[in-house]
From TrEMBL:
GO terms for biological process: ubiquinone biosynthetic process. It comes from Litorimonas cladophorae. PANTHER family: UBIQUINONE BIOSYNTHESIS PROTEIN (PTHR12922), UBIQUINONE BIOSYNTHESIS PROTEIN COQ4 HOMOLOG, MITOCHONDRIAL (PTHR12922:SF7). It comes from the Bacteria. This is Ubiquinone biosynthesis protein COQ4. InterPro entries: Coq4.
């Protein structure tokens, strides 16, 4: 069978819209739970970053395997009964605990994308599969990296992702959100260093979009981290410690400041 080879030259150049991105970022700061604003910012600033990463993915051996599988992850990740059968200490059990504790579902993120109105049709089935994998593994990155769902944790996950996938919109949100957290955090807390560290970790790690995720779920989470080269952060947890020592809830800083 002839392998399909993709080239960035085949995609139309996409214009960046910084003023639109700034408007939606301000809306995000008002309510960090309104993740539809994240999608708007990324769409406004990323240009052809997604297309560039898709070409890299689709032309790799692992990427081709994932495209050939055509595996749609949300119903598999939302099968909590199956996840509960996995061994204690496995990635799957850690993911299950995270999703149930946070009240999240994989389908919920799909619904948020749909509600945003940002098109998820990239004009080619293979591109749609790749885009879905990036979306559907977001919460798995929280589990693997140890970054929580507070504002700095979300920003740090985006910093990690940017190191692997690029995209000015992703980096803008990461540092913009961290800057807002810095306004509330104790003086000297390593808020921006958390983003720097997340980017270093992401740069050194394997990209989860390329991995056979269903094969990783039953494995011990520490072994999965070792396989992927993911080191746990220190600066992020130092910020949390300093906040709590000063009576500040890390999970409420942006929402509280904007309310």
């Amino acid at each position: 069978m002839t392998k399909t080879t993709y080239s960035l030259k085949s995609f139309e150049k996409r214009r960046r819209r910084p003023l639109k991105a700034l408007h939606h970022f301000r809306e995000l700061i008002k309510n960090k739970e309104d993740t539809t604003q994240v999608f708007y910012v990324i769409e406004a600033l990323n240009g052809n970053s997604f297309q560039k990463q898709f070409v890299k993915f689709a032309n790799s051996d692992q990427g081709r395997k994932r495209l050939e599988e055509k595996r749609y992850l949300p119903p598999l990740l939302d099968n909590h009964d199956w996840l509960r059968t996995l061994p204690d200490g496995s990635l799957g059990r850690a993911y299950l605990h995270f999703m149930e504790t946070e009240g999240l579902t994989a389908q919920g993120l799909v619904d948020e994308y749909s509600a945003s109105g940002v098109s998820r049709d990239y004009g080619h089935p293979d591109m749609n599969i790749y885009g879905d994998r990036l979306r559907d593994t977001h919460d798995m990155l929280h589990v693997l990296t140890g970054f929580g769902r507070d504002a700095l944790g979300e920003a740090s996950v985006l910093g990690y992702s940017h190191a692997q996938h690029g995209g000015p919109g992703v980096l803008f949100i990461a540092y913009g959100a961290a800057w807002e957290v810095r306004k509330t955090a104790p003086k000297g807390a390593p808020v921006l260093k958390s983003i720097h560290e997340a980017r270093r970790i992401g740069k050194a790690a394997k990209d989860i979009a390329y991995e056979d995720l269903m094969a990783l779920l039953p494995q011990p989470i520490d072994e999965v981290r070792a396989h992927m080269g993911i080191k746990l952060p220190t600066q992020y947890h130092e910020v949390h410690a300093q906040m709590r020592n000063n009576g500040i809830d890390p999970y409420g800083v942006i929402g509280a400041a904007a309310a």
